[in-house]
Specification:
Elements lengths: L2 E7 L11 E5 L8 E6 L2 E7 L21 E2 L8 H13 L4 H7 L3 H5 L2 H14 L18 H12 L4 E5 L5 H15 L4 E5 L6 H16 L4 E4 L5 H13 L4 E4 L11 E7 L16 H12 L2 E6 L4 H6 L10 E5 L11 E6 L11 H13 L2 E5 L8 E4 L16 E3 L4 E3 L6 E3 L12 E4 L3 H11 L21 E4 L9 H10 L5 E4 L12 E6 L13 H13 L6 H4 L3 E6 L5 H7 L3 H14 L7 E9 L2 H13 L7 H7 E3 L3 E8 L2 E10 L2 H20 L6 E8 L5
């Protein structure tokens, strides 16, 4: 007997085809099976899909059907829940099923042929030890705080989803560990997923989970999933999760698609972090998908943050007001006398002109050094200076390929574009007028570090009377940003130097502001955070507030020193409500103010948005395509209802208008109804595809839809 199988595949040629293709098979394979199929002249991986349901398969003349090339034996079919998750994500984010399904699998699974894979599987089967079963009672060293206990009690008593609103240092990680611990101890085979925003944070988390669960369940019980792993490691983790051998999966946003047959708990740490949103291909929000997946698989979901996204905060309002999430609050830091750092605003209007470090801040840093304590200074801009400038003719170091300046990196004397990567040696003289006196404008972390070293040149560290430095050693400043941590292992070794106390002052970008459990830092300073106050992006204040709260959270994490820990903010707008709320560590007040503004302006979470972006060699073509697609809405069935349910804004250049010589434009679509927006986008896809074939689509390089965009 020959069966017809619907199979989802990913190929650019078929990216317009949203549903599965039909193949012949000598045996009926269950949905979720992995198969190799021929497509054109190539052979590739596909997933057998459900023959009924919303993902209608693509009708082909039965005589033209081709047989599958082979089935991957030894890997159990992907579950119905997994297929539903993929199908939902594809529909919601307006991408093809095949693209989402195949992108959700580890690269080696897609790329290795059947024979290679079988060899790999055999190897893993040999390596995997059976997990020891849970002991009767696990031993834990710490006693929970009252706030932790009550959060866990409520977590146990209610179905959720939960928003764990816990201040920095309140012990959220301990709550996650306990929730996972309970689950694994009471439900044989149950699996848990824990997501973190940054790869940088996974090793730390892995260490804590491994220390807690390795001795009980074996070292294979905890696996990681993130893009920093080798393809072989990723396959190994994926197989362990898929087979059920891994009880805990730790990962970045990609982990949300991990195949886990017994998933019972999903934790999303730092749920507000923008990196949960994928920025290319299917632009999904891993946090939102986690909530959906939890409902789908009856797994409990806990989102955690000290500064939740306004969306999640709004969802966790009281049930009587329409809330859907259960808010669990942990307002205090762990430790009897632990307090949050004192926030000090330095009014830069009253400081010496052009000073980078206000004298009182410099004083405070110097005092910390004298006491053997650490300070952290952060600035969200790497490189030496953002622009190189000629005062004679006003030449600036523009990137010839982008609408951006090339950044001056002093260390290798280059001008580098942070958007397209275009790099040149710094010219000896102004390329426009020959003036040899070209100067850096503004300041990045590299220059900040250099400047601070000059300012602290006469300061000495305590307890270091050595022959070489009879008056005490010079201050040690370290810088951590994307430039100093390019090589594997560099970030870890630099962090280790900070933790061991070798460093007195740490300078860096937001990389150092997030998550790290520094124990000796008692002063954190944001030297120039004002830009975000006046950004055209309505989410900029939300991001700034959470970044500053996070940064403040790095200070005084040890209860012993928390009493005199401080967060310094240098600003020209000290009375700004954002800083007022920060001073009081009052996220709820900040959120209330922001939500009120959003409600008045009918912005998310009070409305729903999608962006359609277009790229072409000229701005005219990019915008022309969008405008034509917008005009074509009038010819769609139900055009009147569409016009009532949503608003399509005019096409405009993106704020980064040109990258690598490609012009970028975007068009915003807004609706007060998520359903109406979804329905419209699904219908409009065909119009966009058709517009591309019209004269208006000539010269267009690509277009894409971004649902619930984070940056407008
Ligand atoms: P958060 O993630 O909320 O910022 P962490 O989970 O990193 O906080 O906890 C902050 C510090 O407090 C960590 O060093 C952690 O080991 C410690 N800690 C957490 N819970 C307890 C507890 N119940 N008793 C003692 N120390 C704790
Ligand atoms: Zn460039
Ligand atoms: Zn010049």
């Amino acid at each position: 007997m020959i069966c017809q199988l619907p199979v989802v595949v990913h190929t650019p040629v078929h990216s317009q085809v949203a549903g599965p293709l039909t193949y012949l098979s000598p045996v009926d394979l269950p949905a979720g099976s992995l198969v190799r199929i021929p497509l054109g002249k190539r052979e590739m991986m596909g997933v057998v899909w459900d023959s009924s349901g919303e993902d209608a398969s693509f009708a082909i003349d039965p005589k033209k059907l081709r047989p599958i090339a082979g089935a991957l034996e030894g890997i159990a079919p992907l579950s119905k829940a997994w297929r539903k998750l993929v199908s939902f994500a594809a529909h919601y984010y307006q991408r093809s099923l095949g693209e989402v399904a195949l992108a959700a699998l580890p690269p080696q699974l897609r790329d290795l042929n059947t024979l290679q894979l079988e060899r790999r599987l055999k190897k893993h089967a040999k390596g995997a030890n059976p997990a020891p079963s849970a002991p009767e009672s696990a031993i834990f060293s710490v006693a929970l705080t009252a706030e932790q206990s009550s959060a866990i009690d409520r977590f146990n008593a209610e179905p959720g989803p939960f928003l764990l609103f816990g201040t920095t240092g309140s012990g959220k990680t301990e709550v996650y560990l306990r929730c996972v611990e309970q689950l694994l101890a009471h439900t044989p085979e149950a699996q848990a997923m824990v997501m973190v925003p940054e790869i940088n944070l996974t090793p730390q988390l892995e260490e804590r989970f491994m220390a807690r669960f390795g001795p009980i369940y074996g070292e294979h019980a905890v696996v990681s999933m993130h893009s920093g792993m080798t393809p072989a490691q990723r396959l190994k983790s994926w197989l362990a999760a898929h087979s059920g051998a891994a009880r805990i999966v730790l990962g970045t946003r990609m982990a949300v698609f991990a195949s886990m047959p017994n998933l019972k708990l999903i934790i999303v740490d730092e749920e507000h972090d923008p990196s949960y949103k994928q920025q290319e291909g299917a632009r999904y929000s891993a946090r939102d998908l986690a909530v959906y997946r939890g409902r789908l698989e009856e797994a409990k979901v806990m989102l955690g943050s000290a500064t939740p996204s306004l969306e999640s905060w709004h969802h966790s309002r009281p049930v009587a007001e329409g809330g859907r999430y259960v808010r669990l609050e942990m307002p205090s830091r762990v430790g009897a006398n632990a307090t949050l750092p004192l926030v000090r605003r330095v009014d830069m209007n009253h400081q010496p002109k052009k000073c980078v470090f206000a004298p009182p801040l410099l004083d405070a840093i110097t005092q910390r050094i004298a006491k053997g304590e650490q300070s952290m200074v952060f600035l969200n801009r790497r490189g030496y200076a953002p622009v190189l400038h000629c005062a004679d003719c006003d030449w600036k170091s523009e990137c010839p390929h982008c609408s951006a300046f090339r950044v001056f990196h002093k260390i290798d004397r280059t001008l580098r574009c942070h958007h397209c990567g275009f790099t040149e040696r710094v010219p000896r003289a102004c390329p426009a007028c020959g003036n040899p006196d070209i100067a850096p404008l503004g300041r990045g972390t590299e220059r900040l570090e250099e400047h601070l070293a000059e300012l602290l040149v006469n300061v000495r560290r305590p307890n270091s009377v050595s022959e070489q430095w009879p008056e005490g050693e010079p201050v040690r400043i370290a810088r951590i940003d994307a430039d100093t941590t390019k090589l594997k292992g560099e970030l870890e070794s630099q962090l280790a130097r900070v933790h061991s106390g070798e460093v007195d002052v740490l300078v860096g970008t937001q990389m150092i502001a997030k998550g790290h459990d520094f124990r000796r830092i008692t002063l954190v300073a944001a030297v120039n955070p004002d830009n975000a106050l006046f950004s055209s992006d309505f989410r900029a204040p939300e991001r700034l507030f959470s970044l500053l709260m996070q940064a403040a959270g790095r200070a005084g994490r040890d209860a012993e020193v928390s009493g005199h820990s401080e967060m310094w903010v240098q600003t020209f707008h000290p009375a700004h409500p954002l800083f007022e709320a920060l001073k009081r560590h009052d996220y709820p007040a900040f959120a209330a103010g922001q939500l009120k503004e959003r409600e008045q302006a009918a912005m998310p979470p009070f409305s729903y948005q999608a962006l359609v972006r277009a790229e072409a060699h000229t701005q005219e073509v990019a915008q022309g395509f969008l405008t034509a697609a917008s005009a074509a809405v009038a010819t769609m069935p139900g055009a009147e209802a569409i016009a009532q349910a949503l608003f399509i804004f005019p096409a405009v250049p993106m704020s980064m208008q040109r990258i690598a010589n490609i012009e970028r434009a975007q068009m915003l679509i807004e609706s007060s109804s998520r359903v109406a927006l979804q329905r419209f986008l699904a219908d409009w896809q065909a119009v966009l595809h058709a517009t591309r074939l019209q004269p208006e689509g000539k010269g267009l390089i690509r277009w894409a839809i971004d649902v619930d965009p984070l940056a407008i």
